[in-house]
Amino acid sequence: MAEQISKANRFWPGPALIVSSFVALLGLLIACRQDPLTDLDRVLAASWRSYVQTFITPEGRVAVPDQNGGTISEAQAYALLRAVWAGDEATFTRVHAWTLSNLCRSGRAGDHLLSWSWGRKTDGSMGVLDANTATDGDLDYALALALASRRGWRPPPDLPDYLEEARQVMEAVLIKETVQLSNGELLLTPGDWHEAGPPYLVNPSYFSPGAYRIFIQIQPDPRWMALHQSAYRLLSDMNQGLGGEPGTGLFPDWCRVDGEGRAWPAPGRGTDFGWEAVRLPWRLALDQQWFGESWAAKLLKRQFLPFFQQEWQARGRLAAVYHQSGAAAVDFESPVLYAGVLAAALACEDRDFAGRMARQIMSFYHEKDGRAYFVSPDNYYANNWAWLGLALYAGWVKDFQTR
């Protein structure tokens, strides 16, 4: 027995060695723990598939919970853009076919803009609830059609060519959704329902200078460059404050622009950097990422990005909405805000900070019961903008231009 114990002791490493080995193993496991961004392509693909299954009906309509199961032009356009960047031609085809058949105003108003709201009417039937337009939906719709054409995608024989349809939408945007100010600038309005004269209600997050540059390439109209220039000039002023009040670099959800191109608070409309304005840095980033536009980087680098970097350093988190004063308007986070700040960091070539924002977005990601989503399965807005932010970071958001 003593001999057996002696032999066993030869294989007993001793407590010190066991502890040190455990610590080494724990360190190895921590070191090998996967950075969530290394799995980004799979997450983007999985969350897109789940979005299609959750929100898009078999006929191609995006059913938005906040719209009582109806849809809006923005939702259809987001689905088309995401399908292009996800390489999902089948989904693009059916979403486009439904949009063209149900929202396009060519048979109602004689243009190719989209009616912005569709759902259940008071008589119980389903159809257009509001035939007015939303300019952001129209611009995104035209951009999606142009990009699909660049990918070499073609519609079914009974539908118009994607590029030709894009041109008709673009022309209608210029005619019905822009106005010329007394100072000569061309201003993008929120829709065909804009005021007859100044001051004009403006949603800065509708400005899409990267899309304007795409449109110039396929429709050489000087009005697109005029919109491009006025967007940056107006945003530069808004960035420093509204109505003479000093700003912190944040853009407003809404404002009014007078005939001389000066921005003021809009009565009855929010001026926070909130759920509307948060989309603007992403749109500016497209101009910088696709065309190397230095104006986008300078605008975002002046005050906007430093504000959020300082907030992050001081608090380790960002609020979902901020007042123009720079004070947090809410006490919770949102991947939508992180997507906007991520885009700004990319435009300013700060990929390290963009990566931090991307990891924060990933903290909202879940896979459960066969579904992949951000925040919750039925959160339409978060699932769109978390995906669009991460897709930009991952290099999925392309203009498909051969350079």
Structure in words:
The protein is mainly α and 403 residues long. The chain has a three-stranded antiparallel sheet. The protein has a three-stranded antiparallel sheet with strand order 6-7-8. It has a two-stranded antiparallel ribbon with strand order 4-5. The chain has helices at residues 2-10, 15-32, 40-55, 73-86, 89-102, 135-150, 162-176, 209-218, 222-238, 280-291, 294-315, 335-347, 351-362, 380-394; strands spanning 71-72, 117-120, 126-130, 178-180, 186-188, 200-202, 255-257, 263-264, 365-368, 371-374. The protein is globular, with a radius of gyration of 25 Å. Helix content is 50%, strand content 8%. The longest helix has 22 residues, at 294-315. The protein has a domain at 38-175: Alpha/alpha barrel (Glycosyltransferase). It contains 14 helices and ten strands.
Structure at a glance:
By secondary structure, this protein is mainly alpha-helical. It has 14 helices and 10 strands. Strand 2 and strand 3 form a beta hairpin.
Q: What oligomeric state do the depicted chains represent?
A: single chain
What is the number of helices? 14
Query: How would you spell out the order of helices and strands?
Result: HHHEHHEEHHEEEHHEEHHHHEEH
**How many distinct beta strands?**
10
Q: In terms of structural class, how would the helical and strand content be classed?
A: mainly alpha
- Annotated CATH topology of the domain at 38-175: Glycosyltransferase
